[in-house]
Amino acid sequence: MKPGDQAPAFELTDETGTTRRLSDLLSSGPVVLFFYPGAMTPVCTKESCHFRDLKAEFDALGAQPVGISADTVDKQKKFADTYSFGFPLLSDTDATVAKSYGVHRNLPGLPNKRATFVIGRDGRILDIVRSELRASVHADRALHVLGDEAVGGGVGH
After folding, report:
1. Is the Cβ–Cβ distance between 62 and 40 less than 8 Å?
2. What one-character DSSP code corresponds to residue 29?
3. Helix, strand, coil % over all residues of the chain, rounded to 5
4. Do residues 39 and 76 lie in contact, with contact meaning Cβ atoms separated by under 8 Å?
5. Residue-wise over 22-60: b if at least 16 C-beta within 10 A, else e?
6. What predicted TM-score, i.e. pTM, was given to this entire model?
7. Angle at CA 126, nearest 5°, toward 122 and 8?
8. pLDDT tens figures, 47-72
């Protein structure tokens, strides 16, 4: 996957048991889809909390963060309830979506690579952030890219 590619469509269940489709999420604006290895782990918690703490900035750009991991719906709910994220956490237990985005790895306990896909309203990938340990770089870079798009700079312009 690279910027400019069409983001693979998906349908997954969120932490409340609601089915979420990428197309529905994009109907209200850009989506920042961030894959994380595991709920309730230190780096993933730091990353998810950073997205939460920047909610006003994402809202100002009309964008929505959406977390995704191989955790069960119940574990995602516990994660969301514990940290009051305010954005969907999707359960990809069979790694179908992680595989389609090229971020699946077959390691026990760490099935996904940490990667963030900034997806424009048209479903095209604007940018991809890859950093396993620098948790805050994902939300920060996504905001930068979305800000550039909002003023017409855009990635690759």
Report:
1. no
2. S
3. 35, 25, 45
4. yes
5. beebbeeebbbbbbbbbbebebbbebbbbbbebeeebee
6. 0.92
7. 60
8. 999 999 999 999 999 999 999 999 99
Q: Which two tokens stand for residue 105?
A: 């790895």
Q: Which residue in the list 31, 44, 97, 118 is annotated as catalytic?
A: 44
Interatomic CA distance for residues 144 and 2, integer angstroms: 17
Q: What is the Cα Rg of the chain in Å?
A: 14
Which amino acid is present at 98? A
One-letter amino acid for residue 33 of the chain: L
Structure token pair of residue 26: 């994009």
Count of alpha carbons within 13 angstroms of residue 61, beta-carbon side? 26
What pLDDT digit, counting tens, does each position of 12-43 carry? 999 999 999 999 999 999 999 999 999 999 99
Confidence of residue 149 (pLDDT cuts 50, 70, 90): confident
Q: Is 49 assigned a catalytic role?
A: no
Q: End-to-end CA distance of the chain, in Å?
A: 19
CA nearest 38: which of 117, 112, 105?
A: 112
The encoded tokens of residue 66 equal: 């959406």
